[in-house]
DNA sequence: CATTTTTGTCCGCTATAATGTACATGTGAT
DNA sequence: ATCACATGTACATTATAGCGGACAAAAATG
């Protein structure tokens, strides 16, 4: 079941993969692009991209927008995403949990998941401070940069974790190199304790708290996090962790519930 | 630019199309299914479906859920849909408009769009009546069955409308046949007046009001609707239409707004 | 103007993706 | 036990999808 890396210098890409590469690229760019630009920037043959874009357009997966023949993600994707959200109905409880956390702690609260082999903030509630600490929703961040990351991969064996996370993601934003073995150690610690906290390694003034939200198979399907100023976080550590655990417990009951069954 | 209809009895289906056929099918079913079931129900070769499902699984487009090898729409779709929603940032204003409508009229208010060649309720706010009139979100409904349908296709020439809407969608739920020409006439009337209202043809007790929400190119990108008991609707017709138009006007300002541009 | 770059279309070649078929296993009915 | 059916896998065949490259219009550049 482990995916083969494409070692071979690349033969022909499969249409489906190319298509989702295009979609992911547009999502990452967060703006409409011309087919030509897409081709150039993802390094794919122009003729292929043109053909795929036209196919996706005619399916409603992409839409013309922004003029000049630019395309962006289409309505169909919204509908499909809404169906996912509806099936794994975490949104309602999730918002409630974040609200509760924000009320109790006045800190920024986040609900995070994996997106492929990256970490992503799915929903967020800003804290009530004069200077709020905030994050972009839906941005892909290397797993090792985050507290949640330790929890989200904890169900995997060591070696699979190392295969799963791209090498370069252990290079921290300040240029330092995070030793994968110490990362693994932190993962195991997080797994044992059911939480992870640290002074953020992506900046110099925040402290992060993360606890798992366990899914169907019992491993962390998501995390709830608090992002706080360092001194506040350290001062309120126990209380904050209690709040997080309470909120996470409230989320763990209604995972997947089909309509009719 | 007009799409060719696939007259030919069908040769080989393209992977991409098959893939999105699978996704749409799962959305429609609103439940996890085994690959085998999918193949049988959409009438596709089993081997093809198995291959595609595996591809989609490895991309995060589909996910195992519900056990027994059943699959359903995956997290990646949620992320892509969220990016769409974020780009065409209608959600916030949309909820506000529905809230306002529900407050002012106490009737069920809906925000509707086309999904391919079907009509879909994207968001809804139930009215404040003891017996609420409600609809399922995200269900695909034939365009001719709905008041909004008249507005959503009004930008097309007559012939293209007839090409666009599947023949069988003119068969109403009560078995009657709606003459396409009278449908077209209603479309043109709706276009002239900038609204459409009628006693619903999908049941015997509701009256429907729809006004367009115009998008980039000036045609109805969506509609705002009220679904009311017949007598209330007819009694309050003018007021309700005013409320709808006011709410729609509030939505028409922020259509597509790229992040940086 | 001439020249270069960007953008979109068209077409032939061939690697390969979609398919049909056969096979293997599990499950339940008779 | 035997049969029927549902479910998943493996493989050879061949229609075609992805690709490269040619062409041309349009836009930018000099």
Automatic annotation (TrEMBL), chains A, B:
GO process terms (BP): negative regulation of DNA-templated transcription
Q: Does the keyword Transcription apply?
A: yes
The HTH iclR-type domain, residue ranges:
13-75
Q: Which Gene3D superfamilies does this chain map to?
A: 3.30.450.40, Winged helix-like DNA-binding domain superfamily/Winged helix DNA-binding domain
User: Which GO molecular function annotations are given, in alphabetical order?
Assistant: DNA binding; DNA-binding transcription factor activity
Cite the InterPro entries for this sequence: GAF-like_dom_sf (IPR029016), HTH_MetabolicPath_Reg (IPR050707), Tscrpt_reg_IclR_C (IPR014757), Tscrpt_reg_IclR_N (IPR005471), WH-like_DNA-bd_sf (IPR036388), WH_DNA-bd_sf (IPR036390)
Q: Where is the IclR-ED domain?
A: 76-257
Keywords attached to this entry: DNA-binding, Transcription, Transcription regulation
Please identify the protein, giving its name as recorded: Transcriptional regulator, IclR family
- The organism named in the record is Rhizobium aethiopicum
């Amino acid at each position: 079941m482990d995916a083969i890396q494409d070692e071979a210098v690349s033969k022909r890409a499969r249409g489906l993969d190319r298509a989702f590469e295009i979609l992911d690229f547009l999502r990452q760019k967060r703006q409409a692009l011309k087919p030509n630009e897409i081709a150039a920037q993802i390094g794919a043959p122009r003729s292929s991209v043109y053909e795929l874009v036209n196919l996706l357009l005619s399916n409603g997966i992409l839409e013309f927008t922004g003029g000049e023949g630019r395309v962006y993600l289409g309505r169909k994707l919204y509908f499909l995403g809404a169906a996912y959200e509806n099936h794994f109905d975490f949104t309602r409880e999730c918002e409630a949990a974040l609200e509760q956390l924000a009320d109790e702690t006045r800190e920024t609260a986040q609900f995070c998941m994996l997106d492929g082999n990256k970490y992503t903030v799915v929903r967020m509630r800003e804290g009530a401070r004069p200077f709020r600490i905030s994050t972009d929703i839906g941005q892909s961040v290397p797993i090792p940069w985050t507290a949640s990351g330790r929890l989200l991969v904890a169900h995997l064996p060591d070696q699979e974790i190392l295969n799963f996370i791209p090498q370069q993601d252990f290079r921290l934003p300040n240029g330092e190199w995070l030793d994968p073995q110490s990362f693994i150690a932190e993962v195991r610690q997080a797994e044992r304790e059911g939480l992870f906290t640290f002074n953020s390694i992506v900046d110099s003034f925040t402290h992060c708290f993360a606890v798992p939200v366990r899914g169907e198979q019992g491993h962390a399907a998501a995390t709830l996090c608090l992002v706080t100023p360092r001194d506040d976080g350290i001062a309120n550590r126990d209380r904050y962790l209690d709040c997080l655990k309470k909120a996470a417990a409230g989320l763990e009951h209604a995972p997947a519930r089909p309509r009719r069954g």
